[in-house]
Amino acid sequence: MVIYFKKSDEETTKTLLEHIFTSALKRGIRDIVLPSTLGNVARLAFETVPSSLRLVIVTHSVGFRKPDHDEFDQPVREMYSGSRHTILTATHLFRGLDGAFYKSSGGTYPPQVFATALRLFGQGTKVAVEIAMMAADSGLVSVNDWIISAGGTGHGIDTAYILKTCHSSDLGTFKFGELLGIPSALELTDS
Q1: Fewest 10 Å CB contacts: which of 9, 40, 51, 138?
Q2: What is the mean pLDDT of residues 45-69?
């Protein structure tokens, strides 16, 4: 079942986390990859995740917004320490060296083209794909297993997919399985 959202906020995040966890349990999926910039999504997920599931939380890299600054909440990081869950803080796949060249001298580079194409389906889709590949490249999820990866538009998560990720060097093996939630601009009326 796909859930369509009108906004990205804590209520949407809680609803989608519940749907993600239910879907994972129903399908025998173990690994859930979630973005969390400041730690809010990570905290909500940690407090509600069933014991058979494992969270991989992907944060912004240190220096993402300003030099040497880690935006992620230290108490949330400590909450995850020693648990079955993992926090990945690393350079984002679509923002590495190519992103630095784009920022300093303009031009278009393949990672930005790919990211822009994914954003046609929403910012959350771009994030979900990117962090799933980052988790695979870091050895935190297997490219042979179905996982659930989520993304968001601004605050919290509003998009989630069941997918088989790939290593960033092997994009042709990436597989979408099922859409679980996504924002929609469509105005539905009862008729």
Answers
A1: 51
A2: 92
Cβ distance 143 to 136 under 8 Å?
A: yes
- Taken in order of first residue, the domains within the chain and their CATH numbers are 3-52+73-183 (3.40.1380.20)
Three-state SS for the chain is: CCEEECCCCHHHHHHHHHHHHHHHHHHCCCEEEEECCCCHHHHHHHHHCCCCCEEEEEECCCCCCCCCCCCCCHHHHHHHCCCCCEEEECCCHHHCHHHHHHHHHCCCCHHHHHHHHHHCCCHHHHHHHHHHHHHHHCCCCCCCCCEEEEECCCCCCCEEEEEECCCCCCHHHCEEEEEEEEECCCCCCCC
147-151/31-35 β-pairing: parallel
CB-hemisphere CA count at 13 Å for 111? Answer: 18
* Distance separating alpha carbons of residues 69 and 66, to the nearest angstrom: 6
pLDDT of 133 reads 95
The predicted model scores a pTM of 0.90
Beta pairing partners, 58? 35, 88
Per-residue pLDDT, 190: 53
Q: Give pLDDT, residue 99.
A: 59
Asked whether the beta carbons of 151 and 125 are under 8 A apart, the reply is yes
CB 135 within 8 A of CB 123: no
